[in-house]
Amino acid sequence: MQADVSVIIAVYNTMPYLTECLDSVVSQTIGLDRIQVLAVDGGSTDGGDKELQRFAELYPGLFTVLTQENSGGPAQPSNRALSMATGRYVFFLGAGDHLGPEALERLVSAADTYDSDVVLGRTIGVNGRNLSRAVYEHTRPEITLDDSPLPWALSNNKLFRRELVERHGLRFPEHMPVWSDQPFTLEACVRARRISVLADYDYYYAVRRDDASNVGSSTSQLTRLRCAAEVMKSAASLIERGTRRDAVLRRHFTWELSKLLDQDFLTLERERQDDVCAGVGALAEAYLTPGILAKLDRTRRVKLLLAQAGLADELRELIRRERDGAGSAVVVTGDGVYEALPGFGTLPNHHFALTGSAAGLLRVDDVVRDEDGILAGRLPLVGASSVRVAFLPVRKGRSQDEDITGCYKLAEGHVPPFAEPVSAEQHDDHLAIKVHVPYASLTKRRADRAKIFVPRLYVRVANVTYQLPLPQLPGPSTSVVRWRGGKAFRITLGDDAQGNLKIFVSRMSRLKAIRRALRRTRRRRHA
Predict the structure, then answer these.
(1) How do residues 278-317 score in pLDDT, each as one tens digit?
(2) If DSSP codes are grouped into helix, strand and coil, which group holds residue 388?
(3) Which residues of 265-290 are buried (b: 16+ CB within 10 A; e: fewer)?
(4) 3 state SS of 291
(5) In sequence order, which residues have a C-beta less than 8 Å from that of residue 479 and are 6 or more positions away?
(6) Residues contacting residue 492 through CB under 8 Å, at least 6 positions apart
(7) Is the pTM higher than 0.85?
(8) pLDDT tens for residues 470-513?
(9) Whole-angstrom Cα distance, residue 252 to residue 232?
(10) In 3D, which of 231, 272, 273 has the Cα closest to residue 252?
């Protein structure tokens, strides 16, 4: 009788995780008579080979255990097992990972129901394993590389129809020690008639081992660069130029290539740094389209462009600043606001532009309190000209509408401004802002219920408006009591989860307010 699914496991030094992996296979609700297990040990020295033999003896006829010398990666043993598979479907299981008990039964049932060639089951990261879960948000009988986050989930821990694999001769590239599953998975997805994703169950548990040996930490930068180039070359050969190819290659620029330009880059010898810079630059020259650039965050984009332009010194400086947490100047010109990262002034300015949604570098440096209210202070800007400033409160659950003139107005029913008029004095490297929020103004509203205000400063430059939260006040949260119309109000200055200033306003009983005032008077007398 033909098995429904052949489970392929490439094993090399994954104890003690291997035991849980194998236990999860023999516990599958699909039934052992519907499974074929092909395990290839590549010269384990941690007892993994003995553990495979133990399970083979416990479950006669279920396991086919093969042994070989270490080939340097999972590709060769996976191909060897694949050539012996007889199931209608094949499933690749990492030797350090494990399955949910119903995983194979559900996956096979979905493949048969939807007539799918590839089925993804929701994957969970364990022990800090970082992976993209966006594709698993919803069960969908059919997805494509164009209309889903599938390009971010190209590992081979999926169910593949074996007929598809054999018809197209799909195999893992054995010269790739890392990421060899990506060309295999990508081609299967390109060739598949239908791809389905299941989000109704935890199918696969991807485990980060304590020594992180399964996340490529021991693979050299140049080896990873070479393998990334192979992955991208494979994608380009399978998919014509356009948005579909961009969707796949954007993942590699965002993830694999960007990781080559993280802090570990600085630990390399200078010659190796130059080699990585040149290699990444060549891939950027070949595949980095305007469509991909537009969807990259600013720092990633600039790193790749520096590599493409061969500006290795500027790239080193940018990575060094990122490592040290050093800030960059915000440059304001007549046509925009820019982050002065290394390469600014050499590469086109628009690659450094700050937008309203990415203006995290624009910040108010100082916020202080006085007896009457709160005073906001200094905004770092370089080369600023004709900056318009407005200060408005943001009430929880409410927002502002922008007037086409560049000033701000509030839609009917929104909270009106409560700050005193803004003054702004321009300096060479900063904007000196004087914005006063009197405590008395916070009591002008009906206070039947407590209100929460999150003040924001709005700066408009070159027709772009930036919304800036105020930083929290130094020291612990404090409160003051103010009277208006015979009513007492407690005003508490605190901060939100992001460390921004938040103002809580609530009514206070007259008796409590009087007692509080008397206590403070007595303390001042004794001081």
Answers:
(1) 999 999 999 999 999 999 998 999 999 999 999 999 999 9
(2) strand
(3) beebeeeebbbbbebbbebbeebbbe
(4) helix
(5) 490, 491, 492, 493, 504
(6) 477, 478, 479, 503, 504, 505, 506
(7) no
(8) 777 766 667 888 887 778 888 888 777 777 777 888 888 878 87
(9) 7
(10) 231
